[in-house]
Amino acid sequence: MSTQQRVSMAGLAGLLSLLVILLGACGGNAGNTTAARKAPPSQQVFVEPERGISDLSTFDPAQAFDVPSVTAIQMVFTGLVSLDKDLVVRPQLASSWTVSPNGLTWTFHLKPNLKFSDGTPLTSMDVAYSLDRALQPAQRSSTALTYLGLIKDADQLVKGQIRTIIGDSVLTPDPETVVIRARQKATYFLDALTYPCSYVVEKKLINKYGSKWTDHLDEGGGAGPFKVKEYTHNKRIVFVPNPNYYGPQPQLQQVIFPFYRDTNSAYKAYQAGQVDFTLVPGQQVASVRNRPEFHLMPQLWIRYYGMNYLAKPFDSINMRRAFALALNKDELAHAIWKDVPIPTNHIIPLGMPGYNPNLRGPDNTTSTRGNPQLARQYFQKGLQDEGLTSPSQLPPITITYPSGNQDQANEIAAAIQRWQTVLGVTVRAEAIDFNKMLDELSNTVGNPHGLQMWAIGWVADYPDPQDWTTLQFDAGSPYNQVNYGQNNSSDRLQQQATQKLLEVADTLPDSNARLQAYQNAEQQLVNDVAWLPITQVRSAYVLKPYVQGFVLNAQLQVPPDDWSQVYISVH
């Protein structure tokens, strides 16, 4: 690791220390930390529900784009680097790395004697194969170019203009060395490599089973701390320790992920002793808040409403501001979520490098209580923008959100009532399956007939403001679902200027200047209502007291090596 990277990571640890302080104030995020007598091997079983889904959308790292899938994938697969509990980049399959003086050539040295879970040796060629595979046009990955796009010629491979990047920008001079050539210098290169599409997969298993290879992970496939013992679609996944894991061995003998369609069902299962960990529905928080098993975890997770700039009436900046300022986010957080989340106007969340404590909302204040009077003024201007004189002339407006969470449904109902009261607008709610909604959002990019308005959340992929700004709003980004800058609205030139500012920020070598550029861009994005942020999530969860050493990071994930600290005590 170069001196520059050491300084960068040390600064990041300091910036993230606020989350650690918040964790202490909220009672921590782990099971009992005092020594406890370990239960026998037959009881070393941990059950963690996958909530809000009936099955994984994918078990293929190259295709991963949602939290439930990533959670399962990280049990079985790992990459060159990973994020630890403090969201600092650490070695994983790689033991070390260096970067050239111009910042364009990265050399990774693998740990010795790596193996897949079936005992097959894992070499630099497997790393190269996995990176190349994720970018192959046949994969049609919605994430690979986003997170691997810094690799030289990755864009050409995705478009089918070249056959492979192996031997071009990904080199394997020997079995334990991987060299990656970047297309530009970028501070966040290592952070991007922590995303699952860079994880190493076993070519032998893929060649044997083709597109169905993830149904056979009991035979191998990954090199993570666990391997799959059983995957019953629409029911559960059972993981067991990978005996060939290169890191510390898990103490748990099984980890089970049952699927639950909603949070309430998972919580009832927890109460019945059927699962060991789950999120707490808002209406249940008061009853468990003072119990030792209750934990409140601040996260790098913003819940927001998106508005399609290509769909009327949200092509009007005045209409977007009206809808934003009509909402009282404080009241939503209190009445619906029982003060668990933090009301916010931010796109870059608290605890992230680049967080701006002085950011102002669309009304030029730091208030999150809304501004009904100004909202009505913006609404009248918005009607004029649309050539209308009355709310009754507006096209039908629908807000779409994932089914499976009653608190979310209650929030949407409250927001709809607020828009009716303040603006006189009727909005219809539509709840759909989470995986279907992800597909619909992908189809909204560049599409005036895609989703019109929606409620969703974004969890940090890596601790860099680029993940919250350029990745979300730049031209050509698959996550620019609001179609920021890519529309015919009257303020599109300002939007495109902000996109250019983000592109410059991505390449700035000075970290202070870079963070300031992201903050300037974020303020303009908030003024434009690129997102309508609602709350920053603090996950309220319960964990059985006999679960020891279970520590989540701010992405609500357990880093691979940290599973070795988790065990079940006598109870």
Descriptive keywords:
alpha+beta, single chain
Describe this structure in words.
The chain is an alpha+beta fold. Helix content is 30%, strand content 19%. The protein is built from 17 helices and 20 strands. The strands form 5 sheets. Strands 12, 13, 14, 15, 16, 17 and 18 form a 7-stranded mixed beta sheet that branches. Strand 7 and strand 8 form a beta hairpin. It is globular and about 70 Å long. The relative contact order is 0.16. Mean pLDDT is 92; it is low at 1-33.
Termini distance?
Answer: 44 Å
**Secondary structural class:** alpha+beta
Q: Rg, please? A: 24 Å
Mean pLDDT: 92
Report the uncertain regions: 1-33
Count of separate DSSP helical elements = 17
Shape: globular
Tell me roughly what share of residues is in helical segments.
25-40%
Most strands sheet: 7 strands, mixed
Number of strands: 20
How large is the share of residues in beta strands?
15-25%
Short description:
By secondary structure, the chain is α+β, with helices and mostly antiparallel strands.
SSE inventory with pairings:
Blueprint: H1 3-25, E1 45-47, E2 50-51, H2 67-76, E3 81-83, E4 89-91, E5 94-99, E6 105-110, H3 124-135, H4 144-148, H5 154-158, E7 170-174, E8 177-181, H6 189-192, H7 203-209, E9 226-232, E10 236-241, E11 254-260, H8 263-271, E12 277-279, H9 285-288, E13 294-307, H10 317-325, H11 329-336, E14 342-343, H12 372-385, E15 397-402, H13 406-423, E16 427-432, H14 434-442, E17 453-459, H15 470-473, H16 492-507, H17 511-527, E18 532-543, E19 547-548, E20 567-568
Parallel strand pairs: 1-11, 2-11, 15-16, 15-17
Antiparallel strand pairs: 3-4, 5-6, 6-8, 7-8, 9-10, 10-11, 12-18, 13-17, 13-18, 14-18, 19-20
Helix pairs in contact: 10-12, 16-17
